[in-house]
Amino acid sequence: MKLLPTKPLRLPRLRTYVPAPTDPKIFWFNSERDDIVNDVVRRILERYQSDEDIELCLNDAAYNEIRRHEARTDEGAKNRLEYWRGIVRRLSRMSSEGRQETLRECATKMAYDVAGNFDPRVYKFAAKAVPGLLTAVMNPSSVMRSLLDSGARLDELVAAQGPIEKLRNLQRKGTIVLAPTHCSNLDSIAIAWVLLREGLSPVVYGAGKNLFSNPIISFFMHNLGAYRVDRRIKATLYKDVLKSYSSVMIERGYHSLFFPGGTRSRSGAIERRLKLGLAGSGIDAFSRNHSRGIKRPVYFVPATINYALVLEAETLIDDHLKEAGRHRYIIEDDEFSRVERWISFFSRFRALESACVIRFGEPMDPFGNRVDDEGRSLAPDGRTIDPMTYVTRRGQAVVDHARDAAYTRELGESIAHSYGVETVAMPTQLLAHVIFRRMVRATPGLDLFARLRHRGDIAIPVEELAADLGNTRDALLGLEQRGRIHVDALLRRESPMRILERCLATWDGYHLRPVAKIVSGSVLAEDPNLLLYYANRLRGFAVELSGANEADRAAARDIEVMELRT
Predict the structure, then answer these.
(1) Could you tell me which CATH class the domain 120-422 is placed in?
(2) For a tag site, which of 112, 238, 253, 358 has the least CB within 10 Å?
(3) What percent of the chain has pLDDT over 90?
(4) Is beta strand 522-525 parallel, antiparallel or unpaired with respect to 516-519?
(5) Residue ranges of domains in the chain
């Protein structure tokens, strides 16, 4: 069943909150919201100054918006369709001032549609109530006990690793831009909880507008700093508004978050092809501040979000493998929208020992240089360097979009590298990798899609699979010792047979289709698609994990070169 729209969730009567000087910057957002929008619109008008540029911009926006609204049937779409058609009819007859005013009007509407909201009362309410509410969802048979739970069980389920004390210090010295991997629509909930628990400031972040259709999630997202990103809008003007909004927020010192992957990883693999528009806004903000004499540092913090079980795994991998999924950007009908899948997921999630590990990487400046505990940028040889020199020309800091685009690409490479190093291998991912490697080994010469048709007809003796799992785990621990990856505590501690049993039980308790199961002393690979999804997290390490067995090494080489879009 789908979660249907309801009346807006209303906050209980709470006294008006007046931010204190020691409160995080985001507590002041609502008092600055109109000024932020006006600043964004000013940037747009500065970008499009000539009549020709404005006409091209409005034509592009009208063309894309007319196409989008023509495909819809609701009353709001009809009104918007007439609005954009009216602009097209009048555009050729508009004066220079009229075109500029129309651009201002369009940019203002878009900026207000994007702009978020932050209610400190909701934040304080969520800090007390959300842990209990989440544990109640995880265990619906004990709702009252869960609501009284302060979140201790949630603390166990969602772990945080990395230089957290360093981040606490840096957030007081400059502006933090978190750049995590993206696996699930639960990512923003998980990371918001970790920031709250670890004493890190809440952040502003872009969230797909489709997520605001869930009334409960929408209530918290709308009031806790999320700004709306409508990926259905293709107009260049809208993309410029988004980038300007992000830049203005960072310039003003609002700690921010964006997902460089752009959308959830359909394949389950670590993102390598990053969308860097919002990363560029961080560099732009740094340049603009320094050109105005504002010396506030900007720190980028890569992070990986690692799940033993992924809520939307079935829909994501199926969408990835379908030809239609290669161009579909928004999924509106996945497990995230269905209440019964939430309950099933959280019930199994709650049974795990460490269900989610969020690992923060080492902070870096906007140009990919690591920073020390005091926030000073460091050259590769350890020397302290001044990041301001990257944006200086003839002794003056200047804004240069072409130059900053090159810096953005280099920053993206640094973030992608950090993702590999800061990945935490989870037990389900390692087991899936070993089973899938055996599938590839048993089907030489076949392409990926032919292999995925082998459902339930590849059997691996349990003892043999446990031995493979143990050997691969040892190779994984070797990679960890060399600083190449991190390993979940359960993987490090438990016996291979126990890991096998626990992973099969985890999958069986949630996924609609059996991922793998034991029959007559052998493990059958029942759902190659889901095995592929979980295995893909370790795909880049396949050869290094394959050991000395030549058949395994050949299979691993096949796995590493599979043409899978991430």
Answers:
(1) alpha beta
(2) 112
(3) 59
(4) antiparallel
(5) 120-422, 424-560
